[in-house]
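Sequence of glycerophosphodiester phosphodiesterase (Alteraurantiacibacter lauratis).
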Amino acid sequence: MGSRAVVKALLAPLLLGFSLPAMAQGSDFLIIAHRGASGERPEHTLAAYDRAIDQGADYIEPDLVATKDGVLVARHENEISGTTDVADRPEFADRRTTRLIDGEEVTGWFTEDFTLAELRTLRARERLPQLRVANTAFDGLYQVPTLAEVIALVRAREAEMGRRIGLYPEIKHPAYFASIGHDLAAMLVEELHAAGYRHADDPVFIQSFEVTPLQRLDTMTDLPLVQLVSAQGGPADLPGMTYAEMLIGERLAEIATYADGLGVELRLLLDDEGASTGLVDAAHGAGLVVHGWTLRKENAFLPPALRSGETDLAARGCFEAYLFALEATGIGGVFTDDPGPADAFRADQGRHSVCQRGGD
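Predicted 3D structure, token representation.
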């Protein structure tokens, strides 16, 4: 049986319209809004975070970089030509440059070359306009938010909604930023502690793809820490190490000496037949929680068997079936661009088929 056929067999109840067993409810399975509700609003804007909170996300995820004057702001990368209108701003044309970031040459405009005041004159844009055409209607409306503004939004919405809303910040390229005088780990801890986030049971996870900053953070804060890992490459601060090596045997126990969890790329959680790879069980055995990244509804990001067709990559595929298979591995939560449908499915409102079979 081919891998696509096996995946369909495993997920046949949902694909055929039968009810599925309930997945973990409430806080037992976390919905983490990846860059906000970025499937519906330009990512890392207050509007995207606010939308995610409205849709029931347990946590919102701001990726953090630094400005020239040392302010933490929310951008997926410090290079901002894909997520703002900076390339169309003649007053900043001379800021275009090439930098070596984590061993790769990157050309564009970088947050560390802008003061906060300058950065605030820019406006956010949809990063994936070909896949998310509807989101382009919001281009030009929103500023780049600071971490302080994200925290203020969370606190205001908590008061309004009567529930805790978590923060799941990622420090981006911390070794690179340290090389130019910005200690992202220290900056983040100072700001979180000042805002009252200090204890292990506060609704915060701090994450990084690098190792050394997490080891430092383990001595600086009691807030939970998450080691991010991907299917390829390795931590930029440890050039001789790969993520694959970090996930083998006793290496998981080494991660557990400084981190509380793993943030794992989805394709490391399910094999080609749609079954668990065993990584979640191994991580649990080492005392680590596991959250998976990143679940998105568009065909472009789904396994072929769960796509609604063969050609339109922007079309909505069987997002719910993928979520069900992922939850069955035992993960404690998932990062998603689409917290609304994820929360509806978690709440047992989406237990019947909304899916069409992909092509055979």
